[in-house]
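> call design_seq(struct)
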């Protein structure tokens, strides 16, 4: 009898546990899925490290959102995610600088254990289409885009109504003649200081500058990335111009002063080292173009005081090294600027080109013309000794030549609008609306003209200093001939009859 009662008790206990188990299984509970993915920068075609990824439930308004930070590979993961619908998005400072909203992705968690959900900044093509519109011609790329924000150097606040201008060089090869032109795109910033320059060249270099009233940046060169989309912020600041003691007025100084030094209240510091080995390059020259100059000490350190604030052009030179020019932001609490210089051997030995030319300086009579002493002649040895940074720097050192701006409009102190060709140091601060620099030749007392150019015997029309600097390097020049209107040989008489000619022969 006792044995039967024990068996009945075991059977009842088993039935109760089975029933209880069935009740628990029928109760909904969290699946505990994992949501993982990668955040990518589609413009740079690289992972976006440091992005703040957020997961927000659509069905539980009171449920707190969850946030993780993407690692160095752009990877993120959320564990123990319950069943339901969610919004998945991310934030990164790059989104704000591009002026776009953070993309949001809708995801659904059911009973899967792992869900892959990648995020990305829109691609360069989508960004171009959103900012500049779809090209009218089917299949056309629509050109490249430059976006950014213009800010004041003093307070870093966005500047509304600032003018941003970009220029580039276009060459047209015709029978017996090479013509050049400089297209220009100009836009005005919005209330948040943001600007977009559409339909600029998708490859190559451009000159970019900005101004607002008396404040401006330097005009600096920038290269467009291969993706055809670039962000470039610009800071505006004022500079104090030191005028010669005998100058009559600001307009008179702009037209006749050979050089002036722009000073300000900014301060910049940094280091200069060799690319090979990283050793300090003591004695290297560091300067803001047309501004303060400093020498690098034995530790490779330098400091520029009294620099004009804003985005300025920094130039670094050292004997035996390839000079560097690059834009820098002279603003409060700016970090140190680190510059590395490469030797000429490192820069020149990477590519060796063998080619034949139709004519060179020897076959074209350079030596015979030099013996005649009818013009001014610069040999390859002289170019190496002078070590100019650009072709325009080389030419401006020749007596009778100077570098100037072609000013569309210039305002003097009496607010009188005049058409002048002003000195190179009278940048956008002086009121010149054009960014085009010219090589000028003295024609007479107080008169200057724009000469014709011949490169390897080929005539170039409307060739500016920026044109020359963009496609010629001093190290690639074998010789230069400079002729006034009275001494120019017949073979180098250009289509301008009132000025001389500059003849350049390349290696």
């Amino acid at each position: 009898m006792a044995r039967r009662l024990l068996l009945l008790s075991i059977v009842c206990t088993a039935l109760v546990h089975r029933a209880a188990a069935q009740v628990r299984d029928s109760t909904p509970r969290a699946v505990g899925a994992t949501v993982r993915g990668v955040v990518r920068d589609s413009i740079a075609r690289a992972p976006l490290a440091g992005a703040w990824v957020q997961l927000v439930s659509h069905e539980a308004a009171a449920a707190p959102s969850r946030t993780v930070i993407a690692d160095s590979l752009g990877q993120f993961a959320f564990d123990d995610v319950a069943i339901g619908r969610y919004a998945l998005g991310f934030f990164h400072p790059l989104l704000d600088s591009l002026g776009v909203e953070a993309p949001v992705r809708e995801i659904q968690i059911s009973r899967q254990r792992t869900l892959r959900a990648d995020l990305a900044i829109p691609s360069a093509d989508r960004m171009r289409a959103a900012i500049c519109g779809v090209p009218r011609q089917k299949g056309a790329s629509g050109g490249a885009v430059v976006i950014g924000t213009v800010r004041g150097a003093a307070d870093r606040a966005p500047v509304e109504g600032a003018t941003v201008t970009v220029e580039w060089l276009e060459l047209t090869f015709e029978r017996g003649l090479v013509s050049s032109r400089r297209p220009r795109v100009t836009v005005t910033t919005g209330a948040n200081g943001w600007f977009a320059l559409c339909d600029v060249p998708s490859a190559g270099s451009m000159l970019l500058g900005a101004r607002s009233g008396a404040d401006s940046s330097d005009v600096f060169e920038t290269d467009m990335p291969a993706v055809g989309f670039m962000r470039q912020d610009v800071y505006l600041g004022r500079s104090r111009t030191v005028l010669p003691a005998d100058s009559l007025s600001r307009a008179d100084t702009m037209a006749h002063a050979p050089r002036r030094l722009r000073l300000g209240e900014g301060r910049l510091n940094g280091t200069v080292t060799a690319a090979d080995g990283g050793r300090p390059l003591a004695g290297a020259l560091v300067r803001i173009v047309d501004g303060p100059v400093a020498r690098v000490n034995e530790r490779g350190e330098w400091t520029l005081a009294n620099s004009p604030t804003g985005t300025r052009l920094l130039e670094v030179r050292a004997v035996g090294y390839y000079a560097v020019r690059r834009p820098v932001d002279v603003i409060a609490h700016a970090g140190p600027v680190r510059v590395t210089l490469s030797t000429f051997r490192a820069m020149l030995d990477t590519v060796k080109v063998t080619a034949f030319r139709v004519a060179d300086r020897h076959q074209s009579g350079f030596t015979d013309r030099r013996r005649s002493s009818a013009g001014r002649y610069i040999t390859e040895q002289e170019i190496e000794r002078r070590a100019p940074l650009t072709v325009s720097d080389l030419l401006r050192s020749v007596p009778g030549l100077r570098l100037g701006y072609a000013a569309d409009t210039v305002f003097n102190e009496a607010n009188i609008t005049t058409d002048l060709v002003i000195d190179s140091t009278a940048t956008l601060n002086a009121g010149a609306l054009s960014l085009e620099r010219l090589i000028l030749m003295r024609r007479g007392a107080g008169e200057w003209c724009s000469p014709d150019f011949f490169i390897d015997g080929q005539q170039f029309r409307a060739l500016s200093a920026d044109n020359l600097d963009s496609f010629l390097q001093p190290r690639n020049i074998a010789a230069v001939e400079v002729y006034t209107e009275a001494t120019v040989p017949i073979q180098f008489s250009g289509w301008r009859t009132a000025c001389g000619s500059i003849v350049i022969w390349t290696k």
